[in-house]
Design goal:
about 25% strand
Amino acid sequence: MAITPTFSARPRVLVVGGGYVGLYTAFNLQKKIAKTGGIVTLIDPLPYMTYQPFLPEVAGGNIEARHAVVSHRKHLKHTELIQGSVTSIDHENRTAVVAPANGGENFELPYHDVVMAAGAITRTFPIKGLAEAGIGLKTIEEAVALRNQVLSLIELASTETDPAKRARALTFVVVGGGFAGIETIAELEDMARAAVKLNDRVDQSELRFVLVEAMGRIMPEVTEAQALWVVEHLRGRGVEVLLNTSLDNAEDNNIKLINLPDKSVAQQFDADTLIWTAGVMANPMVRSTDFPIEPRGRVSVNVNLQVNGEFGVVPNAWAAGDVAAVPDVTGGLPDGTCVPNAQHALRQAKRLAKNLWASRFNKPLKGYKHKNLGAVAGFGQWKGVAKIMGIQLKGAPAWVAHRGYHGLAMPTVERKFRVLMDWFITMFTGRDMAQLENLEAPRATFVSAATPKPKPAAAAPVEAPKAEAKEEATASK
């Protein structure tokens, strides 16, 4: 007999998404809502929140993968957790349709308040071969796969005798010159150099790293002078930085790059590794709701983080983070909204939780206001760039600032401690250079051992021809 899952009948605050906003909103409301007879319900396809600024360091072997995620079950003990996806919302009738992660039948879930915290997904373009050849860096799984792939390709290339296949394996391309792309290529380059030092069959000169950026500069979050310094720094490490350049085709892992704006061919070569970090977009699930959506595809909200449409505030509906167009009263994007980053998401979540709770008692709400403190980026051990409250840093001081900020921003004391221990150990032992093979097919070894091998065919006895046998007998006499 099938077991039907049961969910609480108490008035529900439904949190859609378990990233920065979802985790902090649920964490700050779960006990308060429970004391009033209600319940906070969080729905996400994954059982954890990923601290995305650490993904380049996970890919580079500086941080253990599990330490860069925060378990929902462990830290949201008073929250009803559902592993699945919200496919649509009918706010007029206060219901959401949920698709379970296990592939079970969709079901409706009623709620009293809803918090849209579905975050963002990787933004791509219709480039031939990209879906087949590329990999993003938005999830912990992608970071782990990248680390294993780079290390495995170096190992495979060390025994490859075909020059073309060898060059293809040792060529690594990153598309996107924002923070994610720069940190990713820098961390992977650092790790690859360290791996080659341990393998005398590969020379450092064989490694090829290519950064492709469609704009005329990289990292718009820092000053132009700092951006130029980063380009010089990367080129000094042997990284090819191609500005005003775009990926045109990636079929069969043949990378075709074009110059902008004339679209003439810039370069064409083979590469086994193509990493796409060219931006994000609001989770498209919001289009399956009856909430007002602005031109960028985000939910429209006011400064209080309430969903706000043409006819005013939508009651009992809230949104924040990358999925929401939150007004930035201090000046943000050209359209006057907050930049989609962790710095804003973490703070918006805390303000949203306070405002939602205040609304229960008809208390005044407080608008979200936070002036961006700056930006920090790490480029491998003792290398980085930062702009903090107008102060510009580069090299080791920026690297220390990068680790200091993100160490403090990492959610929960338990995870902070684990990450700090990873960094401490790495300072003395270096990066973790072990790649894990067969993660996509973990049972392959067992299946091979458990599958009976066919018995070898019995060899037919070899008999000498009779004529030759007689001659041998006569000769012996």
